[in-house]
Amino acid sequence: MFGSFRERYYWNRILDVSTGEFLVAQGSKEYIEKLIQGFEPSEIIYNKRDGKIYDECFGNAYYSFRLEDWVYTEDYAHEKLNQQFGTNSLKGFGR
Fold this sequence. Notes:
Layout: E1 2-6, E2 9-16, E3 21-27, H1 29-39, E4 44-47, H2 51-58, E5 64-67, H3 74-85
């Protein structure tokens, strides 16, 4: 589960690796917490810059891991996708 925590609205992206299902949600803290409880994720991954807000909302209630800002950049995503597919560009993939 990936989260973004900003001001009054919270974002949540859920990836179920067992089924490949990917969901996106936005809502209040209560709504996102209800989703988290329903999916019972084994881990919540979020941006380090959101650490204070995450800690205020959820504390140590869930196993979580913080990632640096650069992990969320388009350049890094392209690099990782090229590595995954063994290509030099993503041109043939509609990019």
